[in-house]
Every structure is written in structure tokens, then in C-alpha cells.
């Protein structure tokens, strides 16, 4: 069975936009293809006439510091993100999430752009990026690039605001606060609970970024997945901890706020809603305490 008729491999972002605009339709971008090719083979995606391979687009394959941001190209393989020293220094939660996405072979080709574009509520890379307050650079076939908050991209389970065949995720901007006061220390952490099997799907995952000032939480961002139909930040729990000392009482209040905001559901292949509510207690406390200790 032929899954596509034409295969293009542009070298620049402008050439990629031109390919999507002028190639025989329907035309779709592809990088790792770990999800798209399966969907095509198994009939879960409409037939495609043209595939536009983004793996050679230079602008989408860099990891570099740009002023006060760490930029990660959308076509960078997950395994490279996991091993990159800049990511480890400025976005440890993303380093940890990248180590847990699928298996080693998949991580060598899968991309962060694909992880986000699929808009799954418990996608490891997405949950880490949310806690890191990530902005997304998007370009279209007829417009110049624009920057949006990551949270704006999600419409529902597996439904992205990225217009298929018309727009591309170019990369991700993660603020790194290089000019923060010396008394303010930042850190992040990502962990998940999964079934002990070959390529385990997450039962529950959690990411925390915080800024610590002595014994106080100056600022904090928390993401838990799957906590609802779309990936999101647990803002009510953040509000209970912001400006507070990290005491047992403060953690319990944050956990109560988290449980009030999330909407755990039962999944036949993963876990029941009740089991997830039980697990999130230990997972959230572990991630929060680890991020707090790292900022000491």
C-alpha cells in the first residue's frame, strides 16, 4: 500500500512553507513520523498526497540560547534534547521528560514538535514545557512567524490549534532568567508513574518549576497529566504556594487545590480515576520537594 505519492525534503524554512503551499494536496509536514506513519498505515488518517520532511530544515534543528530564552527547534530529536547540556542546565524538567518518551529507538527520531502537535493530555514533553512557561514559534504557508503561549495550542484530546497542512511549529522558547537576583534560585523537575512494561504509557506525570528565595517560594508553575481533556497548568495549586514557605501544611493545601482543579478519568489501558487521585499525592510531593532541593 502506498501511503503517499510525493516526498519533499526542503533545506530552509521558506522552502518548507513553499512546499506545503504549492505541492499536490493534501500535503503534510513530517519529522520523526512516529505517530503520523502509524496513523496512515492503520487507516486513522486520511490519505496524503505529499509528505514534506522537515528534518533538514536548519532553523528547526538548533538548540541555542537566544537572549533570555533557550530555543529548541521543533524538529530536534528527543534523544538530542535529553543529552544537550544547555537543556540540562536551564530546563532540567524537559531533560527528565525526554528520557521517558517511548523507547530509545523512538527517541532517536521522535521530535518535541510532534509531541506537542498531537495535543495529548499526558504527553511527557508537553507537561514539562507547560511548567517551564514555554512560548511557541509558529509559521504559516502565507504568513510570517508568530509567538503564542503553549497553552493556546490545545483544543481537546488530540486536537491542536495548529492548522494541519497550513502551519508549522518552528520551535520553542523557554525563559531561563539569566539576570535574576542572586538571592533567587530557580529549578525544575519532572517525574511520572508508569506501568512496568516495554514502552510504558504514563499513568500520571507531573512537572514543577519554581523560584526559591531563601525559605520562600517566590514563584511556581505546576503541570499534571492527564488532568483534563487538554494539557494545562494547575493554577489553583500554584496560587496556594506562591509567596509561602514550603511547610507540610502548605503542601497539603496545594494538594487539595490540585485535586479540586484536575479532572482525572478512568482509562482501560492505564488506570482508574480513583487510582490516579491516590497516586498524585506521592508524585506531586516528590516532584515539588525535588525541585525545592535543587534550588537550594
Counted up, domains total 3
The general outline is globular
Largest sheet: 5 strands, antiparallel
Helix tally equals: 11
Please indicate the percent range of residues in DSSP E strands (runs of 2 or more). 25-35%
CA gyration radius, whole angstroms: 19 Å
CATH structural architecture of the largest domain: 2-Layer Sandwich
Assign the CATH class of the largest domain: Alpha Beta
Termini separation: 57 Å
SSE run: EHEHEEEHHHHHHEEEEEEEEHHH
> Strand order of the main beta sheet, please?
4-5-10-6-7
Number of strands: 13
Structure class: alpha+beta
Kindly report the CATH topology of the largest domain. Answer: Uridine Diphospho-n-acetylenolpyruvylglucosamine Reductase, domain 3
How much helix, percentage-wise, in residues?
Answer: 25-40%
Mean pLDDT rating: 92
Poorly predicted tracts of residues: none
Structure description:
- The protein is α+β, with helices and mostly antiparallel strands.
- The protein folds into 3 domains: 6-53, Uridine Diphospho-n-acetylenolpyruvylglucosamine Reductase, domain 2, CATH 3.30.43; 58-175, 2-Layer Sandwich (Uridine Diphospho-n-acetylenolpyruvylglucosamine Reductase, domain 3); 187-294, CO dehydrogenase flavoprotein, C-terminal domain (Enolase-like, domain 1, 2-Layer Sandwich), CATH 3.30.390.50.
- The protein has helices at 13-22, 36-41, 78-83, 85-90, 92-98, 104-107, 112-117, 124-131, 235-241, 248-261, 273-294, and strands at 6-8, 27-30, 50-53, 63-66, 69-73, 135-140, 146-149, 154-156, 159-160, 167-175, 184-194, 202-213, 216-225.
- The chain is globular.
Amino acid at each position: 500500500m502506498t501511503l503517499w505519492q510525493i516526498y519533499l525534503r526542503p533545506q530552509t524554512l521558506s522552502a518548507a512553507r513553499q512546499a506545503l503551499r504549492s505541492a499536490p494536496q493534501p500535503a503534510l509536514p513530517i519529522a520523526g513520523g512516529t505517530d503520523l506513519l502509524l496513523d496512515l498505515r492503520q487507516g486513522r488518517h486520511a490519505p496524503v498526497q505529499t509528505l514534506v520532511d522537515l528534518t533538514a530544515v536548519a532553523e528547526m534543528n538548533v538548540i541555542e540560547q537566544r537572549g533570555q530564552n533557550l530555543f529548541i527547534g521543533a524538529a530536534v530529536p528527543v534523544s538530542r534534547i535529553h543529552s544537550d547540556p544547555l537543556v540540562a542546565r536551564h530546563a532540567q524538567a524537559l531533560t527528565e521528560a525526554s528520557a521517558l518518551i517511548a523507547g530509545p529507538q523512538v527517541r532517536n527520531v521522535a521530535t518535541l514538535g510532534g509531541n506537542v502537535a498531537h495535543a495529548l493530555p499526558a504527553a511527557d514533553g508537553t507537561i514539562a514545557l507547560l511548567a517551564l512557561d514555554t512560548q511557541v514559534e509558529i509559521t504559516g504557508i502565507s504568513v510570517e512567524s508568530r509567538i503564542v503561549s503553549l497553552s493556546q495550542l490545545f483544543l481537546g484530546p488530540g486536537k491542536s490549534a495548529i492548522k494541519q497542512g497550513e502551519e508549522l511549529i518552528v520551535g520553542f522558547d523557554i525563559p531561563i532568567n539569566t539576570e535574576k537576583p542572586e538571592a533567587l534560585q530557580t529549578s525544575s523537575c519532572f517525574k511520572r508513574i508508569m506501568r512496568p512494561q516495554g514502552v510504558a504509557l504514563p499513568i500520571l506525570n507531573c512537572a514543577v518549576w519554581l523560584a526559591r528565595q531563601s525559605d520562600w517560594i517566590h514563584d511556581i508553575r505546576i503541570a499534571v497529566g492527564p488532568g483534563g481533556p487538554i494539557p494545562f497548568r494547575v493554577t489553583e495549586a500554584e496560587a496556594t504556594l506562591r509567596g509561602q514557605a514550603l511547610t507540610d501544611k502548605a503542601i497539603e493545601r496545594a494538594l487539595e487545590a490540585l485535586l479540586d482543579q484536575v479532572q482525572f478519568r478512568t482509562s482501560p489501558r492505564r488506570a482508574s480515576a480513583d487510582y490516579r487521585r491516590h497516586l498524585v499525592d506521592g508524585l506531586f510531593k516528590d516532584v515539588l520537594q525535588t525541585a525545592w532541593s535543587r534550588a537550594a
